[in-house]
Amino acid sequence: GPMPVVVGIETSCDETGVGVVRDGELIGEALASSMDEHARFGGVVPEVAARAHLEALVPAMELALERAGITSADVDAIAVTAGPGLATALQVGLAAAKAYSIAWGVPLYGVHHLAGHVAADALAHGALPNPCVVLIVSGGHTSLLYCRDLVNDPIEHLGDTLDDAAGEAFDKVGRVLGLPFPGGPAIDRIAKEGNPTAIAFPRGLSRPQDPPFEFSFSGLKTAVARWVEARERAGEPIPVADVAASFQDAVVDVLVDKSLAACGERQCGDLLIVGGVAANSRLREVAAERAAAAGVRLRIPALKYCTDNGPMIASVGHMLVVSGAAPDALSLGADPSAIL
Ligand code: KG4
Ligand code: ZN
Question: What positions does the entry give for Fe cation binding (predicted)?
Fold first, then answer.
């Protein structure tokens, strides 16, 4: 119809997300997380995540439709994360989406998880600026992209991480500091009490001769681990807040500098920062300051739409429907290592 209603399903990791978007506007959502079950393992356990999706998905769907004030008869299309992500977790969402597609008689659209992170921003801030530079920072990805039109044009990779993703670095350093999993939010919290200039940790790939848009965080992670070990060997206490704040600033510095350099190189006045690490308060603060100074318009999704959620997948689904894209066949398979 002229005001298409698109339901989105996200199950690529530990969050079971459902979102309902009508004519580009978010009208209902539900979210369940199995993170509590993974925390004691220090990482997301795929089989545990899949089982949790299986239990949470139908109730989440019912709740999201109820909150949207609609029934399944009002739904025009269903979008689902096809990858990348944990294979067993993706399969639960795909199976459910196919079942709904058949039961409701609506087309099915497979969505790339990272396109979802980008499209999350359109829900709060309106149509994406075309073109724009996008920094995607999540637990599995760190990439700088040049995006002309998210669903109609191929996305250009300006650079990616050569080793760890930014979120992965946060999680590993969190472990080194004895903080609860996932480390990102924990470091964000404790860093507020620390001094970001206390320890000079290395900024990866930031010398003039380095590739300008590639990232590296494994050297930083190792530097933090060495620093902490040296302290422990010397029998000295670990200033956890200072280490967290200094580590966080090393990551944020590099992310913001390279993003603005990419805007400069492309002569692009619009920058989006998306993905779980875009929830980081220091990143949001520093990016806002430096983007303003550089004359670059900055958009970052609202906090709860930075980490994985259903509405971001519905948002891509809406863009696909509006652009007249062909739906996917029911043979659509999970693509755990899908490339954007
Ligand atoms: O996008 P996301 O929810 O899942 C993936 O697709 O990976 O991102 C999760 C990542 C985790 O590594 C988590 O530690 C990190 O995002 N994260 C944060 C913050 N909130 C989540 N990192 C830094 N500061 C935060 N406030
Ligand atoms: Zn994600």
Answer: 113, 117, 308
* pLDDT at residue 1 tops 60: no
The pairing of beta strand 77-83 with beta strand 108-112: parallel
**pTM greater than 0.90:** yes
Beta-carbon neighbours within 5 Å of ion ligand 2: 138, 308
**ipTM value of the model?**
0.99
Higher pLDDT, 167 or 340: 167
Q: Same domain, yes or no, for 109 and 251?
A: no
On the 0-12 / 13-18 / 19+ scale of CB atoms within 10 A, 206 is: middle
With contact defined as beta carbons under 8 Å apart, do 66 and 24 qualify?
no
The domain that holds 190 is classified in CATH as 3.30.420.40
Domain limits for position 56? 5-118+306-322
Residues 3, 23: contact at Cβ < 8 Å?
Answer: yes
Q: Which of 168, 281, 307 to mutate to test the pocket of ligand 1 (most atoms within 8 A of CB)?
A: 307
Cα 33 to ligand 2 centroid, rounded to whole Å? 13
Q: In total, how many domains does the chain have?
A: 2
Same domain, 135 and 263: yes
